[in-house]
Amino acid sequence: MKIDRAHFRRPLLRTPFHDRFVELSTAEEWMAWNTYKVPRVVDKLSTEYFAVRTGCAVMDLTPMEKYRITGKDAREFLDRLVARDISRLQPGRVTYVVWCNDDGKVIDDGTLFQLDRSDYRLCSQHHQLDWLLMSAMGFDVHVDVETHDVAALAVQGPTSCSVLTVAGINGLDQLKPFDITELRCGDTPVTVSRTGYTGDLGYELWTEPAHALELWDAIFGVQGQYDIHAMGLSALEMVRIEAGFVMPGFDFNTAESTIRNGYDRSPYEAGLGWLVNLDKGHFAGRKALVAEKAKPARRRLLKLVVDGNKPVGDALIYNRKDGTQCGEVKCTTWSPILKANLALADIEYANGHLPSQLWARVDYQRELKWISTWAECQVQAKPFYSPEHRSATPPARC
Amino acid sequence: MTERTDAIIIGAGHNGLVCAAYLARAGMNVVCLESGDSAGGMSAPRTIGDDYHFPGLAHLAYPLATGIRRDLKLAQFGYQPGKAIDTVALDASGKHLTIGANSVSGDGLPESDKQAYPKFREQYLSFAKAVRPLFDKKPPRLKDIAFADKTTLARLGWNIRFGLGRESMNELLRVAAINIYDVLNEAFVDDRLKGAIAVDAVMGSAMGPRTPGTVLTWLQRLQGELNGSLSLQSGGRSQLVHALTQSAEDAGVTIRFNARVDKILVENGKAFGVELSSGEMLKAGLVISNADPRSTFTKLVGAPLLETMFANRVTQIRGAGVVAKLHLALGGKPEFSGLPESQLGGRLLVAPSMQYIERAFNHSKYDEYSEHPVLDIAIPSLHNNALAPEGHHVMSVNVAFVPYRLEGGWQEQKAAFAYKVISQLGQYSANLKSLVVDHELLTPQDIEEQFHTTQGHWHHGELSIHQSFMMRPLHGAAQYDTPIERLFLCGAGSHPGGGLHGVPGRNAAQRVLELGGAK
């Protein structure tokens, strides 16, 4: 292999869509995501946010870790890997999964796409090859990294189905949430799944890097008819919090990257308990999770609606006003569509019980002067934002 | 099946039998499954042709742990601790050393070494005694420590501080983790003597005299009834495995031969029985494996039923066998030049210096055998003439260091290697070559295949510090119970490791009972 001796001058990789983002970028706000250079904001944050919620936003998903899992034992391997019962997953279906280490602490979460009988794609936030290979012992299974071999776009928002249809992808109508299928966009083969990280109607498009720009151009070709915006990661952060999605490594420490004892989190603690099936037989971390389940809850990552409109980033949470500290905010956003101050917070339980009152200590600046105040927090069980059009099949024509 | 089986023990090696006998004596209904057609595992007798009988892969018996003989009434079943034998350090020019429990003699041995030897033995026996709680008891768990573990640690601390006294304690702490090479160089001058002692510290392990931790392996040799003296296994009724079998059966243990376990049956994280190679399924309250930990977890249970990191740690257990066994059927009595016939019945060593041992070891690291291996020789037929036809003899030779994986493959080079070893023996015994009527060489690969122990390791895993005590065989299975509920380990892979002392078997039984037996 020829080594590029000047690679250090350009340490971040470019996705196949990069040139298009460069053309559109006015903000010039770039960031690193999984060794790729991607936009934090392309043009304006508010435009991108409202594109997801009221129109159509296009985001580059290529840097997402992607693994292809094939072989005779692929299903058994995955069933032992993840906490969810995937025995009834079918080709053409997608499911959301979480996986744990020996101690029942979350290593990562991801989406599992069943492409064929013994052919799966697992997408994750963090690099998982080492864990997948360790987990493969004793299984007839092959694990391939395809992060760099698949170009992926997220096309999200209420008009996304219409946009893609006009752009030339036929057959989206009958695609239900968590379906995946092989379609064409004109002459370009493209795999489409009705999935996303926005809590809105949306699709993820997977194709070969060589076809990436054809696909992009087809989508943006309908821009006259529809309001379409390229979107960066800052808008994604807003919408994923509205949708109540957690992000391992940001909202809590992932197990294999945690140094201090007790700083990692179980799926129950991370609010992902619904992805755990203790009755499905052995899976990684099951024994520890059974033991944890038998004991009173120690902590939970909770969805909070915080009174007022002052940003609560980095705020500590107290069990009453002027009480003792019982938690901390992990991520937060102002939700323009809900007109609410949203947060995900790690809250310690006392003897298995949620503290009766939660108050955030909010420090904010007013014309550069620091002000400290209290804001009461309401725990929310359901996603903050989950519109009906998100799951309707066929999606409404817009 | 009419009676419920409380415990299935996989493997009727000596530890399996010890464990079975203890459990049966505690009232449990125990079935012991053995893949071969006789009990004893590595200490089971072996025959070449029809007439030449060998006491087993283990021809030397390091002593049984204190108490097992009494607990299992072994004397009643004919077992006597073997008579301590001398070690003879062979010398190519005929100036052999004779090394006993408390004295050493031989041509050209410096007076200072003669004086130092008994003192050195005494000091190291006192060290061995001080650390006995560590080698004898269940290894303490450091997290969530149990009361029994605290007493083990307390006794260890007390022994080291007050049993030894301050000076000796300081000395023990100084040497405990270093190598035997430095220690012996400090104590002695004579190369033959140092070589002979060093053999005991490294034999069976992938360690040379300069490997750290070899003082600890030697201290382990000094445990047990005879204060570390060796005896010869010479077959017959007095042999340990014979008495253990009788004791176990007397206590009600059913031993089934030719019953090879293919699979440990696990449901919901609990072991509930085994499947034999015949397809027969046997259920039991508990399964106790005397197979080595790597086989137990990766073959019998299978990685998919284990936790991911645990399964991967199992594969990282270090333990490639480094000792081959050469069995020679001899048409007459071999003569060793310069060695009086009265000493022929001892243990004869070819390890003329520590340097020689270290060099032999070096080859094994690179998948080669040494042209000058370390040899540990016994002629059991001198102690029991039933082992060979009249006037004939059997010679059993441990050959170290021999790699598990040989560059170029064992199949092609086995005969040549056997010839080399016989030739080397010929340098010490002129008539030996002409006496050989038959031979058998068991390489570590043969040992793996025939004794079902991963990579043919004597001790089911190196006795290095990182695989000892609460890390033996590995963290997560170091107190004989395992991450699979109702599955226990009782073999040499568990603390305190290999030898014929029976401690893993006994401790496993105690652990089973402590955790409530088969209830």
What does this structure look like?
The complex is a heterodimer of chains A (about 400) and B (about 525). Chain A is of the alpha+beta class. Among the domains of chain A are: about 5-60 and about 150-230, Gyrase A, domain 2; about 295-380, Elongation Factor Tu (Ef-tu), domain 3 (Beta Barrel). Chain A is about 15% helix and about 35% strand. Chain A contains eight helices and 19 strands. In chain A, the strands form four sheets. Chain A has a six-stranded mixed β-sheet with strand order 10-11-12-9-3-13. A six-stranded antiparallel β-barrel of chain A has the order 14-17-16-15-18-19. In chain B, helix 1 runs parallel beside helix 17 (about 505-515). Among the domains of chain B are: about 5-45 and about 65-80 and about 235-315 and about 460-515, FAD/NAD(P)-binding domain, CATH 3.50.50.60; about 100-225, no CATH class. Chain B has about 525 residues and is of the alpha/beta class. Chain B is about 35% helix and about 15% strand. Chain B has an eight-stranded mixed β-sheet with strand order 8-7-6-16-17-18-15-19, sandwiched between helices. Chain B has a five-stranded parallel β-sheet with strand order 10-2-1-14-20, with helices on one face. Chain B has a three-stranded antiparallel β-sheet with strand order 11-12-13, covered by helices on one side. Chain B is globular and about 65 Å long. The model of chain B has no long low-confidence stretch (mean pLDDT about 90). Chains A and B meet through helix 3 and helix 4 of A and helix 12 of B.
How many beta-strand segments of chain A? 19
Average the pLDDT over all residues of chain B and give the rounded result: 92
Bin the strand percentage of chain A: 25-35%
Proportion of β residues of chain B?
A: 15-25%
> What top-tier CATH class of one domain in chain B fits best?
Alpha Beta
Text of the CATH class of one domain in chain A: Alpha Beta
How many distinct beta strands of chain B?
A: 20
Q: CATH homologous superfamily name of one domain in chain B? A: FAD/NAD(P)-binding domain
How much helix, percentage-wise, in residues of chain A?
10-25%
Major sheet description of chain B: 8 strands, mixed
CATH architecture of one domain in chain B: 3-Layer(bba) Sandwich
Number of helices in the DSSP assignment of chain A? 8
Helix and strand element order of chain A? HEEHEEHEEEHEEHEEEHEHHEEEEEE
Quick one: overall form of chain A?
A: globular
Instruction: Indicate the radius of gyration of chain B in whole angstroms.
Output: 22 Å
